[in-house]
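Dear colleague,

Thank you for sharing your sequence with our group. We've completed the structure prediction you requested, and as agreed, I am returning the results in plain text so they can be pasted directly into your records. Please verify that the sequence below matches your submission; if there's any discrepancy, let me know and we will rerun it promptly.
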Amino acid sequence: EYLDNYYYTLPVVYRKYPELNALRDQPMIRVGAQFLHEFARRAHHLGLTVMHGFNLCNFVGARMELVAQLRAKIPQTGLREVRPDWFNEHGEPDFSKPYFYEFMAAEAEDFFDAFPQVDGLFCWNCECSVFTPSKLKHQTVSKAEIARRSIRAVYDVCHRRGKMMTHDIHTGGADKELSRAIIAAAAECPELMVGADATYSDWQMPLP
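Please find the predicted C-alpha coordinates below.
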Protein backbone atom coordinates (compact mmCIF):
# COMPACT_ATOMS: atom_id res chain seq x y z
CA GLU A 1 0.00 0.00 0.00
CA TYR A 2 1.09 3.59 -0.54
CA LEU A 3 -0.21 6.94 0.65
CA ASP A 4 -2.66 8.23 -1.94
CA ASN A 5 -5.15 10.05 0.25
CA TYR A 6 -4.17 12.91 2.54
CA TYR A 7 -7.56 13.29 4.20
CA TYR A 8 -9.03 10.53 6.33
CA THR A 9 -12.51 9.20 5.60
CA LEU A 10 -14.49 8.20 8.67
CA PRO A 11 -15.92 4.72 7.91
CA VAL A 12 -19.57 5.54 8.51
CA VAL A 13 -22.75 5.91 6.50
CA TYR A 14 -24.56 9.12 7.41
CA ARG A 15 -28.12 8.82 8.68
CA LYS A 16 -29.05 12.43 9.51
CA TYR A 17 -27.45 13.63 6.27
CA PRO A 18 -28.05 10.74 3.84
CA GLU A 19 -27.73 13.02 0.81
CA LEU A 20 -24.01 13.34 1.58
CA ASN A 21 -23.32 9.61 1.26
CA ALA A 22 -23.30 9.78 -2.53
CA LEU A 23 -20.33 12.17 -2.38
CA ARG A 24 -18.13 9.73 -0.48
CA ASP A 25 -16.04 6.68 -1.37
CA GLN A 26 -18.43 3.94 -0.24
CA PRO A 27 -16.23 0.96 -1.21
CA MET A 28 -13.40 2.37 0.91
CA ILE A 29 -15.84 3.05 3.76
CA ARG A 30 -17.04 -0.57 3.70
CA VAL A 31 -13.49 -1.91 3.78
CA GLY A 32 -12.57 0.49 6.58
CA ALA A 33 -15.61 -0.52 8.62
CA GLN A 34 -14.80 -4.21 8.28
CA PHE A 35 -11.22 -3.58 9.35
CA LEU A 36 -12.25 -1.49 12.36
CA HIS A 37 -14.70 -4.10 13.64
CA GLU A 38 -12.03 -6.78 13.45
CA PHE A 39 -9.30 -4.56 14.86
CA ALA A 40 -11.44 -3.55 17.85
CA ARG A 41 -12.34 -7.19 18.53
CA ARG A 42 -8.70 -8.27 18.56
CA ALA A 43 -7.52 -5.25 20.55
CA HIS A 44 -10.12 -5.72 23.26
CA HIS A 45 -9.26 -9.41 23.44
CA LEU A 46 -5.75 -8.29 24.44
CA GLY A 47 -7.10 -5.78 26.94
CA LEU A 48 -6.25 -2.71 24.85
CA THR A 49 -8.18 0.54 24.65
CA VAL A 50 -9.33 1.45 21.14
CA MET A 51 -9.39 5.12 20.12
CA HIS A 52 -10.26 6.20 16.59
CA GLY A 53 -9.02 9.31 14.82
CA PHE A 54 -11.59 12.05 14.24
CA ASN A 55 -10.85 15.22 12.31
CA LEU A 56 -12.94 18.22 13.29
CA CYS A 57 -14.02 20.78 10.67
CA ASN A 58 -13.78 18.06 8.07
CA PHE A 59 -15.70 16.51 5.22
CA VAL A 60 -14.08 14.05 2.83
CA GLY A 61 -15.79 13.54 -0.51
CA ALA A 62 -14.44 11.61 -3.47
CA ARG A 63 -10.80 10.60 -3.34
CA MET A 64 -8.25 12.92 -4.91
CA GLU A 65 -4.67 12.35 -5.94
CA LEU A 66 -2.29 13.31 -3.16
CA VAL A 67 -0.57 16.07 -5.15
CA ALA A 68 -3.91 17.65 -6.02
CA GLN A 69 -4.98 17.57 -2.38
CA LEU A 70 -1.83 19.28 -1.16
CA ARG A 71 -2.02 22.01 -3.82
CA ALA A 72 -5.69 22.83 -3.33
CA LYS A 73 -6.42 25.67 -0.92
CA ILE A 74 -9.88 24.21 -0.35
CA PRO A 75 -10.39 20.78 -1.98
CA GLN A 76 -13.58 20.38 -3.98
CA THR A 77 -15.54 17.87 -1.93
CA GLY A 78 -18.96 18.41 -3.53
CA LEU A 79 -20.38 19.50 -0.18
CA ARG A 80 -21.00 23.10 -1.23
CA GLU A 81 -23.16 22.01 -4.16
CA VAL A 82 -25.34 19.84 -1.93
CA ARG A 83 -25.43 22.13 1.12
CA PRO A 84 -24.90 25.70 -0.16
CA ASP A 85 -26.50 27.14 2.98
CA TRP A 86 -23.51 25.88 4.99
CA PHE A 87 -21.09 28.10 3.03
CA ASN A 88 -20.32 31.79 2.69
CA GLU A 89 -19.87 33.68 -0.55
CA HIS A 90 -16.15 32.88 -0.57
CA GLY A 91 -16.69 29.14 -0.74
CA GLU A 92 -15.75 28.47 2.88
CA PRO A 93 -18.03 26.89 5.48
CA ASP A 94 -19.65 29.69 7.47
CA PHE A 95 -18.64 28.79 11.00
CA SER A 96 -20.76 31.57 12.46
CA LYS A 97 -23.76 29.37 11.64
CA PRO A 98 -24.66 26.15 13.49
CA TYR A 99 -24.71 23.82 10.48
CA PHE A 100 -21.18 22.44 10.51
CA TYR A 101 -21.13 21.99 14.28
CA GLU A 102 -24.38 20.03 14.04
CA PHE A 103 -22.85 17.93 11.28
CA MET A 104 -19.78 17.10 13.41
CA ALA A 105 -21.99 16.02 16.28
CA ALA A 106 -24.14 13.88 13.99
CA GLU A 107 -21.04 12.31 12.46
CA ALA A 108 -19.78 11.34 15.92
CA GLU A 109 -23.21 9.91 16.79
CA ASP A 110 -23.25 7.85 13.60
CA PHE A 111 -19.75 6.60 14.32
CA PHE A 112 -20.56 5.36 17.82
CA ASP A 113 -23.81 3.81 16.63
CA ALA A 114 -21.84 1.87 14.04
CA PHE A 115 -18.91 1.07 16.36
CA PRO A 116 -20.14 1.00 19.97
CA GLN A 117 -17.10 -1.09 20.89
CA VAL A 118 -14.70 1.79 20.19
CA ASP A 119 -13.69 3.45 23.45
CA GLY A 120 -13.31 7.02 22.26
CA LEU A 121 -12.10 9.56 19.71
CA PHE A 122 -8.61 10.96 19.19
CA CYS A 123 -9.43 14.36 17.69
CA TRP A 124 -7.46 16.70 15.48
CA ASN A 125 -8.00 20.05 13.81
CA CYS A 126 -4.96 20.21 11.57
CA GLU A 127 -3.93 20.00 7.92
CA CYS A 128 -5.78 16.68 7.63
CA SER A 129 -9.07 18.51 8.22
CA VAL A 130 -10.35 19.88 4.91
CA PHE A 131 -11.83 23.00 6.52
CA THR A 132 -9.45 23.55 9.43
CA PRO A 133 -9.50 27.20 10.59
CA SER A 134 -5.81 27.55 9.75
CA LYS A 135 -6.73 27.45 6.05
CA LEU A 136 -9.75 29.74 6.20
CA LYS A 137 -9.49 33.43 5.32
CA HIS A 138 -13.09 34.63 5.23
CA GLN A 139 -14.74 34.05 8.60
CA THR A 140 -16.73 36.41 10.80
CA VAL A 141 -15.86 34.47 13.96
CA SER A 142 -12.41 33.85 15.42
CA LYS A 143 -10.38 30.67 15.27
CA ALA A 144 -10.87 30.43 19.02
CA GLU A 145 -14.64 30.46 18.63
CA ILE A 146 -14.54 27.82 15.88
CA ALA A 147 -12.27 25.61 18.00
CA ARG A 148 -14.46 26.04 21.08
CA ARG A 149 -17.73 25.21 19.32
CA SER A 150 -16.22 22.33 17.34
CA ILE A 151 -14.71 20.70 20.41
CA ARG A 152 -17.87 21.16 22.44
CA ALA A 153 -20.05 19.62 19.70
CA VAL A 154 -18.03 16.39 19.67
CA TYR A 155 -17.24 16.38 23.39
CA ASP A 156 -20.92 16.48 24.32
CA VAL A 157 -21.54 13.35 22.23
CA CYS A 158 -18.61 11.52 23.80
CA HIS A 159 -19.51 12.60 27.32
CA ARG A 160 -23.15 11.56 26.97
CA ARG A 161 -22.15 8.14 25.65
CA GLY A 162 -19.46 7.54 28.26
CA LYS A 163 -16.69 7.66 25.64
CA MET A 164 -13.22 9.13 26.02
CA MET A 165 -12.00 12.06 23.95
CA THR A 166 -8.53 13.41 23.38
CA HIS A 167 -7.52 16.40 21.27
CA ASP A 168 -4.07 17.02 19.85
CA ILE A 169 -2.81 20.61 19.70
CA HIS A 170 -0.96 20.02 16.41
CA THR A 171 -2.23 22.44 13.74
CA GLY A 172 -1.64 22.98 10.05
CA GLY A 173 1.34 25.24 9.47
CA ALA A 174 2.10 25.35 13.19
CA ASP A 175 -0.76 27.78 13.77
CA LYS A 176 -0.04 28.90 17.33
CA GLU A 177 -3.28 30.85 17.53
CA LEU A 178 -5.32 27.74 16.85
CA SER A 179 -3.20 25.59 19.19
CA ARG A 180 -3.79 28.07 22.01
CA ALA A 181 -7.49 28.10 21.16
CA ILE A 182 -7.64 24.30 21.39
CA ILE A 183 -6.00 24.37 24.81
CA ALA A 184 -8.38 27.09 26.03
CA ALA A 185 -11.42 25.25 24.70
CA ALA A 186 -10.29 22.00 26.30
CA ALA A 187 -10.28 23.71 29.69
CA GLU A 188 -14.08 24.00 29.39
CA CYS A 189 -14.42 20.22 28.96
CA PRO A 190 -13.32 18.60 32.24
CA GLU A 191 -12.91 15.05 30.92
CA LEU A 192 -11.11 15.98 27.69
CA MET A 193 -7.46 14.92 27.45
CA VAL A 194 -5.09 17.23 25.56
CA GLY A 195 -2.04 15.87 23.76
CA ALA A 196 0.80 17.05 21.55
CA ASP A 197 2.28 14.76 18.92
CA ALA A 198 5.52 16.65 18.26
CA THR A 199 7.27 20.00 18.42
CA TYR A 200 6.54 22.88 16.08
CA SER A 201 9.66 21.96 14.10
CA ASP A 202 8.56 18.40 13.39
CA TRP A 203 8.31 18.99 9.64
CA GLN A 204 11.54 21.03 9.46
CA MET A 205 14.23 18.38 9.83
CA PRO A 206 17.23 20.77 9.34
CA LEU A 207 16.17 22.82 12.37
CA PRO A 208 17.40 21.95 15.88
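Summary note from our side: The beta strands are 51-55, 120-124, 164-168, 193-195.

Kind regards,
the structure core
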